[in-house]
Write a structure and sequence with these properties.
Elements lengths: L1 E4 L6 E2 L1 H11 L7 H9 L4 H9 L3 H14 L3 H4 L3 E2 L3 H9 L3 E6 L4 H10 L8 E4 L6 H8 L7 E4 L2 H9 L3 E5 L6 H5 L5 E3 L15
Parallel strand pairs: 1-4, 1-6, 4-5, 6-7, 7-8
Antiparallel strand pairs: 2-3
Length: 208
């Protein structure tokens, strides 16, 4: 069995990085961490937040988006990321029984791989796919791997669920990331779980 994992929001907690960068780019913001993520988990995009709360013009939004993409993967911000509790042990155990793959939309492959090294995850994954914002996740997988109905894609976004469905494999959505349960349900994943630690691909019970 093959299991494809998203990175941000699924295996690692990157919420602090995104929040701190937002605050850095919007000095007028007094949004708390929870307030910011309440918006994001309801799938409220930055453009809507900036226009409705901070009265940004379209040109100001465009400049924000440009700076966001330029800075979101800089080392000083990536340093704020951390693996979710228990994930390393979970992956080590899962590797004994399954072929594990990592699929991420990060822009810079070298920085993503360096982060995996920092976490001691070098030997965890059979392959690591980094789209570099130039390819679709499903396209990268299809080019090199034959997937089957027993395989899984695990992620925290609607795009991850769509990726799994396009590959003809099962999908597990985690609530540890960027969308709340209501929004994830719109994409009809096979299961919705709180965190990756709740994911047992061989479990026959009904997931709630």
């Amino acid at each position: 069995m093959k299991i494809f994992f998203d990175l941000d929001g699924t295996l690692i907690d990157s919420r602090e990085r995104l929040y701190c960068l937002f605050q850095h780019l919007v000095p007028a913001s007094v949004l708390t961490f929870d307030e910011y993520w309440n918006y994001k988990r309801k799938k409220t995009g930055h453009e809507e937040i900036l226009k409705s709360i901070f009265s940004f013009s379209q040109s100001e939004v465009d400049l924000f988006q440009k700076k966001w993409m330029e800075q979101i993967e800089l080392p000083q911000w990536l340093a704020l990321d951390k693996p979710f509790n228990g994930v390393t042990d979970y992956l080590i155990a899962a590797k004994k029984n399954y072929d594990l793959y990592l699929v991420t939309s990060r822009q810079f492959e070298d920085l993503a791989l360096l982060q995996l090294t920092d976490y001691g995850w070098d030997d965890i994954f059979t392959n690591v796919f980094v789209t570099a914002q130039k390819s679709e996740k499903n396209d990268m997988i299809k080019k090199t791997i034959v997937t089957g109905a027993a395989d899984w894609f695990v992620g925290d976004t609607g795009k991850d669920i769509q990726t799994g469905k396009s590959l003809g494999i099962k999908t597990a959505a985690v609530l540890s990331g960027f969308l709340n349960k209501e929004k994830l349900m719109e994409y009809k994943p096979d299961i919705i779980i709180d965190t990756i630690l709740d994911f047992d691909p061989d479990n026959k019970k009904e997931y709630e």
